[in-house]
């Protein structure tokens, strides 16, 4: 579902050659740089998440390896969200500093020629050096896909859905109303990355039906999410949908603020980072030509 198109070998070699030819330019003692904003899509099934880990295959690691081949030195990529192992993305955003003399080269095509087939660059833009993919984001949207057919799961969808069987969707929608607003979300935070505050504003939680047969897709939008917060929300809503928890009990769980009192975490495979949004003042991007 999230795989990239095949890349013709001749086209790849010609694109990379264009990068190599730019090395003929004389280098200054302190080389000026340009900041690029990258939009990425990836299938998270075979990745140990976004963030670099020693001895593990990660999205950040693959991207930095490809960039280093093009730039000729190590570079550090900063992502908007640190997706966990098995989590997918259609709209992950990252930024990176590259030599200014290479700023207008065909980055999208060159990177996609070097990246593995389960990750690709969707768009590249030049942004001000002040832009930060993570700290300038003011809204993130995730989707979570449930498989509701109780007797089978299509093999092609197993890595992208959570098989849960029949659910009481009306009860889930009622419970989801308690998951919108600004409040302390400690009850839906798993242990892990320390944060200054567990208060977040959730703008919207809603389901969509009518896409693929036997699938219900839930969307979650907020100014930010705690560690595994969306998966914990989804686990709670599914528990309501199975009749094991009343909708109004969700509010009580939130008031208690204890992870131990909340239902189990939904698996990673159904989760996808759909998009990351920014204030208009955060970046005034210029498109990078790709051809």
TrEMBL record:
UniProt EC number: 5.4.99.12
Record GO terms (molecular function): RNA binding; tRNA pseudouridine(38-40) synthase activity
Entry-linked InterPro entries: PsdUridine_synth_cat_dom_sf, PsdUridine_synth_TruA, PsdUridine_synth_TruA_a/b_dom, PsdUridine_synth_TruA_C, TruA/RsuA/RluB/E/F_N
Top-level taxon of origin: Bacteria
Sites where the protein binds substrate: 142
Keywords tagged on the record: Isomerase, tRNA processing
Pseudouridine synthase I TruA alpha/beta domain sequence ranges: 41-136, 175-278
Annotated catalysed reactions: uridine(38/39/40) in tRNA = pseudouridine(38/39/40) in tRNA
Catalytic residues identified in the record: 84 (nucleophile)
Region (Disordered): 1-30
Keyword Protease applies: no
GO terms for biological process, alphabetical: tRNA pseudouridine synthesis
SUPFAM superfamilies attached to this UniProt entry: Pseudouridine synthase (SSF55120)
The protein's role, per its UniProt record: Formation of pseudouridine at positions 38, 39 and 40 in the anticodon stem and loop of transfer RNAs.
Complexes and interactors: Homodimer.
Entry similarity comment: Belongs to the tRNA pseudouridine synthase TruA family.
Xref: NCBIfam families: hisT_truA
PANTHER family listed in its UniProt record: PSEUDOURIDYLATE SYNTHASE, TRNA PSEUDOURIDINE SYNTHASE-LIKE 1
Entry protein name: tRNA pseudouridine synthase A
Natural source organism: Desulfonatronum thiosulfatophilum
The gene coding this protein: truA
């Amino acid at each position: 579902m999230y795989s990239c198109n095949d890349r013709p070998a001749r086209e790849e070699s010609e694109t990379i050659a264009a990068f190599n030819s730019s090395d003929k330019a004389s280098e200054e003692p302190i080389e000026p740089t340009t900041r690029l904003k990258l939009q990425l899509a990836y299938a998270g099934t075979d990745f140990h998440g976004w963030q670099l880990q020693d001895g593990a295959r990660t999205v950040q690691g693959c991207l930095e390896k490809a960039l280093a081949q093009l730039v000729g030195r190590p570079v550090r990529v900063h992502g908007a969200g640190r997706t966990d192992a098995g989590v997918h993305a259609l709209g992950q955003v990252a930024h990176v500093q590259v030599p200014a003399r290479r700023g207008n080269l065909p980055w999208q095509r060159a990177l996609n020629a070097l990246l593995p087939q389960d990750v690709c660059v969707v768009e590249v833009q030049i942004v001000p050096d002040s832009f930060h993919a993570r700290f300038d984001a003011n809204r993130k949207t995730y989707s979570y896909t449930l498989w509701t057919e109780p007797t089978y799961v299509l093999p092609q969808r197993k890595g992208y859905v959570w098989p849960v069987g029949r659910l009481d969707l009306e009860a889930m929608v009622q419970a989801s109303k308690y998951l919108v607003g600004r409040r302390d979300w400690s009850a839906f935070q798993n242990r892990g990355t320390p944060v200054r505050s567990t208060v977040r504003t959730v703008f919207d939680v809603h389901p969509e039906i009518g896409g693929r047969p036997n699938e219900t897709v839930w969307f979650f939008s907020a100014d930010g999410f705690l560690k595994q917060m969306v998966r914990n929300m989804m686990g709670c809503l599914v528990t309501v949908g199975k009749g094991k928890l009343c909708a109004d009990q969700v509010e009580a769980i939130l008031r208690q603020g204890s992870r131990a009192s909340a239902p189990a975490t939904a698996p990673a495979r159904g989760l996808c980072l759909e998009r990351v949004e920014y204030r208009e003042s955060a970046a005034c991007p210029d498109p990078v030509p790709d051809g």
